[in-house]
Amino acid sequence: xxxxxDSDLLKLFVEKxxxxxxxxxxxELRLRIEKxxxxxxxxxxxxxxxxxxxxxxxxxxVIDGVALLCGELAGVLQITGEFLVTPAGWAVVxxxxxxxxxxxxxxxSLLT
Length: 112
Description:
The chain is mainly α. The chain is 88% helix and 0% strand.
């Protein structure tokens, strides 16, 4: 096998590569595709700007929500901890554990 086959093939392709005459259908289709691409580009940048503006507008609400959550979290954790040391809390934990095991076994049996 000759090593210069690729170069021979490339030369043949370059020699035989003739430009096709411009057809009205091809020209119109090319123009439509270019117009659609520029439209999509504009829509992309418009949506990006809108998303950034929405993020800026919502930032203060998110910060206030996080501050409220952190402030109330200590109280919620204290109440939850006090509930879990009662017999009812132990019953809830046991029920949750049993449901978790049952669900896990059912999912694993479906997978195998």
